[in-house]
Amino acid sequence: MHSSDPADALHQSNSRPLKRAMSTRHLVMLSLGGAIGTGLFLGSGEVIAQTGPIGAILAYILGGLIAYMVMLCLGELAVQFPESGSFGFYANKFIGPGTGYMITWLYWLTWTATLGTEFTAAALLMQEWFPQVSVWLWTIIFAILIFGLNVSSTRLFAESEFWLSLVKVITVISFIILGLLAIFGVLSFNGMQSAPLFHNLTAQGWFPQGLVPIFTTMLIVNFAFSGTELIGVAAGETENPAKNVPKAINAAIWRLLIFFVGTIIVISALLPHQMAGLDASGVSSSPFVTVFTYIGIPYAEDIMRFVIITALLSAANSGLYAASRMMWSLSVQKQLPQVFSRLSKSGTPIVALIVTMFGAIPGLLSEQFAPETIFKNLLGVAAFTMVIVWMSICLSQFNFRRQWYKQGRSKAELQFASPLFPIVPILGFIFCFITCISMAADKEMLPGFFGCLIFIAACYISYAFFYKNKNQ
Q: Residue 188 to residues 178, 293, 298: CA-CA distances in angstroms?
């Protein structure tokens, strides 16, 4: 039986080469691993310092709600069309082929830019242990390791990501439990006689800097939740996506919300908010190190350095996976030369992986130039592009559902339906748009902001020149 639906045609070509090797356990850890990283271990302190404790809690709850709305939209699409090209494919089908092309490249850029930051940050941390070894050598070692895990097989990649993520999850859970014990006076904290309880949360007033910073820090917060959408990319390589994808989305978002909000409450209750922010001294300024040290855990700094290196490598691992799958899907849709969809014997897109690895080059350059500036700008680019991708997911689901109803079909016929249509996609889109605007308000982020806009324009122009006529 032949299908005339382009989704089915692509689906047949997708399912054949990429193996369905992931279970719910892998999917949940992939999204937790993508999300728990520098955004939580280092960025959380920055948010508290800018907004005050209550503001930070509200910012992360709002960030979690935005992420949840986007993931509900993604869940509906990923169950209906489990594609490895994910949001690029949905944007192509439900917004327009030019936008689909742009979104796929943008998501590729997000993770490729992030690869540079992950390798650089991990190398800088290793240098604190081994000052005589140069940053670029560590960068190369980490790059070879991550490349090896991705090239081997989807199963080995998923398994490695599971264990790398587990280190972070155990750290965050331990931090919250030990922190709560200190808050209630079960453990002594920095030699205090009485339990700190929660008075630090409002010691400087409810919103010491006013309400505006809650919105200006939304880019950091949204970036902290980015990675959850990896579930959509992995749907094409997941066993039984109709059952596993919705389960993974619910499990991941609620756990992240508990982890992030729990972490913020513990840091805010135990440390004055001025102490939570970052200074230039690297990992030692992480609020996690300060709290563990005050509780009396020996080698707190070394433990957290190890955990943060693991977190960075885990994010690079899932980033390389996501970016290479995007490139592979462009090639399958004949928007890139066919060589990019070439697979290794183990079923991984080998050429796409090699080309994506070149995205780590800014990490190699950063020792000669200013690592802090490169890091901040690459992070800004990654956060901005991620939010644009999230907006496309909301719009794709909105258009898909409208088409579905126009065809005379009902919500009950969907295998997984996002609730409260059309409120969820509309709100998700609006909040993401506000976050984008907040980037333009930050002077330090402006170069990255304009760089992203130029990249988006270049995608549309290149699509119009090279592919529009081919596809018609």
A: 10, 11, 14
Q: How is the chain split into domains, by residue range?
A: 20-471
Q: Which residues contact 219 (CB under 8 A, 6 or more apart)?
A: 380, 383, 384, 387, 435, 438, 439, 442, 445
Q: What is the pTM of this model?
A: 0.84
Extract the tokens encoding 149: 């895990």
Mean confidence (pLDDT) of the chain:
82
Q: What is the reported pLDDT for 38?
A: 67
**Full 3-state SS string of the chain:** CCCCCHHHHHHHHHHCCCCCCECHHHHHHHHHHHHCCHHHHCHHHHHHHHHCHHHHHHHHHHHHHHHHHHHHHHHHHHHHCCCCCHHHHHHHHHCCHHHHHHHHHHHHHHHHHHHHHHHHHHHHHHHHHCCCCCHHHHHHHHHHHHHHHHHHCHHHHHHHHHHHHHHHHHHHHHHHHHHHHHHCCCCCCCCCCCCCCCHHHHCCCCCCCCCHHHHHCHHHHHHHHCCCCHHHHHHHHECCHHHHHHHHHHHHHHHHHHHHHHHHHHHHHHCCHHHHCCCCCHHHHCHHHHHHHHHCCCCHHHHHHHHHHHHHHHHHHHHHHHHHHHHHHHHHCCCCCHHHHCCCCCCCCHHHHHHHHHHHHHHHHCCCCCHHHHHHHHHHHHHHHHHHHHHHHHHHHHHHHHHHHHCCCCHHHCCCCCCCCCHHHHHHHHHHHHHHHHHHCCHHHHHHHHHHHHHHHHHHHHHHHHHHHHHC
State the amino acid at position 169 in one-letter form: V
Least confident of 180-189, 234-243, 290-299: 234-243
The answer to whether residues 53 and 372 touch, using CB atoms and an 8 Å cutoff, is no
User: Which two structure tokens, joined as six digits, stand for 241?
Assistant: 């996506």
Q: What kind of fold does domain 20-471 have according to CATH?
A: Amino acid/polyamine transporter I (1.20.1740)
* Residue 7 confidence class, pLDDT cut points 50, 70, 90: very low
% of the chain at pLDDT higher than 70: 85
Mean pLDDT of 195-200: 72
Please, are residues 436 and 394 in contact by the beta-carbon 8 Å criterion? Answer: no
Greater confidence (466 vs 55) lies with 55
Q: pLDDT tier at 469 (50, 70, 90 boundaries)? A: low
Instruction: Assign 383 a pLDDT band (cuts: 50, 70, 90).
Output: confident
Arithmetic mean of pLDDT, 209-223: 78
